[in-house]
Amino acid sequence: MTARAAGRPCWPVAAGWAVSALLASQVLFWLAIAAAESAARPSTMQARPWVEYVALDAAGRAPADAPRLRAGYEPDPNYKARLDGSPSQVRFEIPFEVDDPRRDLALYLGARRSIQEIRLNGAIVKPNVPLDNFSGGAGREPVFYMLPAAELRAGENLATVLVASEGFAHVFPEFQVGPAEAVARAFGYGKLFNVDLPLVAVGILLFTALLCLVVNWPAEDRPRVRALVVLLVAWAIGSYAVAFSPPFAISREATILAYYSLANALPCAAAYYIAHQVAAPQRLRRALGWGWFATQAFMVAATALAMGGWVDPRQWLGTFPTLSLATTALAGIGGVLLLMGALAREGGRHWLERVVLMVCLTALLVDAADASLKLHVPFLPSLPLTFYAAPLAGLLLGLGMVAALAREATLARRVVTNANAVLAERLAAREAELAAVHEREKALLARHAAFDERQRIVRDMHDGVGGSLLGLQMQLRHGGPPRERIEQAVASSLADLRLMVDALDVPEATLSEALLAFERRLREQLQGSGIALEFDAPAGDGEVALGTRATLHLLRLLQEAVSNACRHARARTIAVRLRRGAGALELMVEDDGVGIDPLAAPGRGLASMRARAAELGAQVDILPLSPGTRVRVVLPARTREPVDGAA
């Protein structure tokens, strides 16, 4: 199967995605750096080729025979005085010309570190206040001092700056004496890029790390998210260490160890996260972890030996920049190659996120290389790099990872929404299929129920009406019964037929509807006999149809009770009542006749009534009244459901 058939882009397209991401990251990085460096420097600033300085003694005075030396400009950009014996302080001298002493002028310094005292023509501008002489990257913040107009004079002026020892040299930053407004504007931009934005970056990085920690990630994503949290926290600590002084005093050796430990940790953490993101082999991730551990162990051992006096600090600690550059180059360039390979394989997926990571790796590489190679903005040799790029890239990293998390959350939501839609569609199809099956089964059950009902009707007609008519026929063949018995037999058969018709007329009817039909036929029957009928069967809420069979049994029970009242009790009034209780239905048939002889043996009618009640699960009670009789049928609530399978 070809790459195109497998869903991968062909190699020109893949290479295009990878190269475009690399070019975009470099253009974005260097344009941002060029804009920031230009804004953070006074427009009239030009580096002097050298600055004179004098070494001071332990009392802070210049010996009478102290020579004036020159510190050449280096594209750090700094002027460095390297002296044997490392005096504690060095005084740099800055001569400058003033045309109009009334004009507001200021002294701009590219960094504040190690600056202890400033004088203008002998007058103090900044007093000698002891400062933390080596404060990591905190000294990269620019500073400016207004020059007192009273001390300025037309023509030649001299500013002197007292600088303390920093590491193994006395470092004086690039400077400019110029209009106060332009200097203040450059200072504002310098403070923005060296302090304000790194502080914002630290907050965003820590917020993003906290966001990663509070989310319940799937098991397969947790190693990648842990690697991202390590990168974000390490970058936040590194940005803080570069932009701000430590909150407590530490030795020079410990400061150097902390700085270069972070310088090694950042590229290793970035490459480790990238290896997880692009699903690199496990052995590569393990190699990154062991590589960082080895370099860290060497630096800790070298620092301990230097602090103990067993080795020369200049020689051993001086290897840290080279080691940091090598580690950053390997991890940074390897991380860029991994990102380019992933873009090529995936056809540009996550392009923006990977461009952000390339920008961050470029910032690490540039910061590490600038310490040794003294870099400047490409195509602008007059614009050296004056501040660290990694803290600014940390702001982009935090925002980019927040955007990536938001994109992943959106994709997850979209996947869940699509999955729900698919499930809903399948559920609807399944419900439609089940409904069709239910309709088929319902129709089949209806056919079976109709067949069963026909069989029951045949049996009822055979055993009831058929048996009665057959007996009457036999009696007629043998001389015939009395006319009264013939009328009774015919009336009984007609009543049975009416009940069958009533039960079959409305098979879906509720109990009240079935009783209403029964009342109509019964009233017509009793009116001809001169018997009054009282019928009280109010409809109730939530009634359920009993079904054809149960309705027929119930109506036959009532019919039998009414027939007994007409035939044997000689009643003038018959009352049928329905009562609904919490757990049962109660049907009563009352008459005002002569009642039932308690000594008489029960006949077939009562036995039939009890048999039908047993089939219904009901209870039949025959109670004497004064005068008359009450037949009570109690139907439990469970019997209200269909009992015979018919709808």
Provide tags for this entry:
647 residues; 55% helix; Jelly Rolls; disordered C terminus; disordered N terminus; alpha+beta; Heat Shock Protein 90; five-stranded mixed sheet
Number of domains: 3
The percent range for strand residues is: 15-25%
Shape category = rod-shaped
Following the backbone from N to C, one meets helices and strands in this order, namely HEEEEEEEEEEEHHHHHHHHHHEHEEHEE
What would the average pLDDT be, to the nearest integer?
81
Q: Helical content, roughly?
A: 40-55%
**Based on helices, strands and strand pairing, what is the structural class?**
alpha+beta
**Rg, Å, rounded:** 53 Å
Number of E-state strands = 16
N→C terminal distance: 61 Å
Low-confidence stretches: 1-6, 131-138, 640-647
Strand order of the largest sheet: 7-6-9-4-1-2-3-10
Describe the biggest sheet?
A: 8 strands, antiparallel
Number of helices: 13
Short description:
With 647 residues, the protein is of the alpha+beta class.
Task: Kindly describe this structure.
This protein is α+β, with helices and mostly antiparallel strands and 647 residues long. The protein folds into three domains: 11-41 and 194-408; 50-187, Jelly Rolls, CATH 2.60.120; 507-640, 2-Layer Sandwich (Heat Shock Protein 90). Helices cover 55% and strands 15% of the residues. It contains 13 helices and 16 strands. The protein has helices at 11-39, 180-214, 222-243, 252-277, 282-307, 313-317, 320-346, 351-373, 390-477, 483-505, 511-527, 548-567, 604-616; strands at residues 50-55, 69-74, 78-81, 89-98, 105-109, 115-120, 123-126, 143-146, 155-164, 170-173, 175-179, 532-536, 573-580, 584-591, 619-624, 629-636. The strands form three sheets. It has an eight-stranded antiparallel β-sheet, with no helix packed on it. The protein has a five-stranded mixed β-sheet with strand order 12-13-14-16-15, with helices on one face. A hairpin with a 4-residue loop joins strand 15 and strand 16 (629-636). Helix 3 packs antiparallel against helix 4 and helix 9 runs antiparallel to helix 10 (483-505). The chain is rod-shaped and about 170 Å long. The two termini are 61 Å apart.
